[in-house]
Automatic annotation (TrEMBL):
Belongs to the DapA family. This is Dihydrodipicolinate synthetase. SMART domains: DHDPS. Pyruvate binds at residue 207. The keyword Lyase applies. It comes from Robiginitalea biformata (strain ATCC BAA-864 / DSM 15991 / KCTC 12146 / HTCC2501). The active site is at residues 136, 165. GO terms for molecular function: 4-hydroxy-tetrahydrodipicolinate synthase activity. Keywords: Lyase.
Amino acid sequence: MEWTWQGVMPALTTKFTDSDELDTGLFVKNVRAQMAAGVSGLILGGTLGEASTLTEKEKDTLTLVALKEADGRIPVIVNIAEQRTSDAVQAARRAASNGAQGLMLLPPMRYKATSRETVAYFRAVADSTDLPILIYNNPVDYGIEVTPDMFEELLSTCPTVGAVKESTREISNVTRLRNRFGDRLRILTGVDTLGLESILMGADGWVAGLVCAYPAETVAVYALGKAGRIAEARSIYQWFLPLLELDISPQLVQNIKLAEVATGLGSEQVRPPRLPLEGAERERVMGIIRKAMAQRPELPQYKQYL
């Protein structure tokens, strides 16, 4: 399969039954909705996918189910987030053996690695596989920033590293990276509340969260923004923003799963230690979702711009 890092790539939630098993039927329903909306890839096992609570067997199952649904039409990308370098290498090899077509790679977990250690970690994984790699740069949540100098070193020594999930929350970084690397480094925004802004500044794609509940709206914002139909994109985005803000929260998984319930694309089930929202916070989130559903816009034709 030939593909590139671009378009909307959902960071999929993991669906569970009320007995804490994988709900593959509901997972498939969501994947089909994503593909029908026009996403360009599927990302499994990220923070939103509750990957830290999944067993290796469950990750294998989700990968194989997603690959069957994608059927070679779009890539399936597996997230790698490990503490030990050897575990990250093993996870990358396991994803490749299952048939994944790309990796999203975080810096080492828990230990705050130096720049030299972080680059060495990334290089060890890149050297272990031929899969294309998207580096997830999120210093806000994970404490390690992948700087332009570090990307320069990676791009010059690791041919499989080709993209960044830009989550520094500094919109000028899109331009800063483009100025330095041109098309050598594909840029995908990883912050929902900077989705349209990043696209208009030249980002190649959007690794999105609320897309799990609102796939068509997310892809429409991307496609219309890329096509220069800014007024149409902005109109959808203005409606969307209160929902997108649910993604920048420690409880983003619970928030987005509530939104998936509202659109019929998921359930509220999370895996402990996470628990469903309750009380005033649940009512606050539900208020945002109810208002959005009551005002949900009719979308213009957008797929022609993909």
